[in-house]
Amino acid sequence: MIKQLLPTLALAAIALAQDPASFGPAVERGSAPPAKTVAPFDPTGYWVPLITEDWRFRMVLPPKGDYPGVPITAAAKKIADAWDPAKDEAAGEQCKAYGAPSIMRVPGRLHITWADDNTLKVEADAGTQTRILNFKPGAPPTGAPTWQGFSVASWEPLAAGGFGPHKPGSLKATTTHIRAGYLRKNGVPYSAGAVVTEYWDEMKDPNSDETWLLVKTLVEDPAYLTEPFITSTHFRKQPDVSGFAPTACSSR
């Protein structure tokens, strides 16, 4: 009897997998909880950068042609070697080094808040830039690309052996639809086809009460990069707004 029923049960299982409504009442699926509710750490507040990597490229305007560490293509090298900040200023393009691929490397403070339960707002005082990280994004934009592009965010699980495979750990943000600009202020370019993938993690300093935010950034751009350009940027949480001072973009 059991053997006779097996083919029928198998067909029913296939039908259920393909269309739950085809086998009895539809199963209600609960909607995902708000991103703010399940956040594994609190990214909000004021953050000051710790310039622990690439100090001479971030704190001082590097000269033309100084681009070690960036895996640029021949086309990118040609653009970087022709960089002229005066031309950018005349064209009103002073924000080229403040786009999503590079804004986290600019030495400025951040103010992070929840715009709503599924949207993080990241304000950078350098260049007076605002990023929006969408955990429940709508349709991708169809207009002209912008400096900060379109970011889709999610809480990513930690690897097994940490808090377990199903507990979220990192904030992942993928940004596209970005206006072409500079990876470094001295004209090292990225194209409008660049894709930025970031992983944000919180760390506690074991020797103090300080909270750190680590942002690992991977920029992929076949037009101007021979391989992904990877950086890690560190921020320390501040108790208040002290030092947060929005300033205009600068080409120099």
N/C terminus separation: 83 Å
Main sheet record: 9 strands, mixed, barrel
Radius of gyration: 23 Å
Q: Beta-sheet strand percentage?
A: 25-35%
Q: What is the count of helical runs?
A: 5
Tally of structural domains: 2
Provide the residue-averaged pLDDT.
87
Helical residue percent band: 10-25%
Strand count: 11
Strand order of the largest sheet: 1-2-3-4-5-6-9-10-11
Overall geometry comes to globular
What is the N-to-C order of secondary-structure elements (H for helix, E for strand)?
HHEHHHEEEEEEEEEE
Given helix and strand content, the structural type is: alpha+beta
Low-pLDDT residue spans: 1-29, 159-167
Which features does this protein show?
alpha+beta, nine-stranded mixed barrel, two-stranded antiparallel ribbon, 31% strand, 252 residues
Characterize the structure shown.
- This protein folds into two domains: 1-30, no CATH class; 41-238, no CATH class.
- The protein contains five helices and eleven strands.
- The protein has helices at residues 2-18, 35-38, 55-58, 74-81, 85-90, and strands at 45-50, 110-116, 119-124, 129-134, 150-157, 168-176, 181-184, 188-190, 195-204, 211-220, 229-238.
- Residues 1-29 and 159-167 have low confidence and may be disordered.
Describe the structure concisely:
The protein has 252 residues and is of the alpha+beta class. It is 15% helix and 31% strand. A hairpin with a 2-residue loop joins strand 2 and strand 3 (119-124).
SSE inventory with pairings:
Layout: H1 2-18, H2 35-38, E1 45-50, H3 55-58, H4 74-81, H5 85-90, E2 110-116, E3 119-124, E4 129-134, E5 150-157, E6 168-176, E7 181-184, E8 188-190, E9 195-204, E10 211-220, E11 229-238
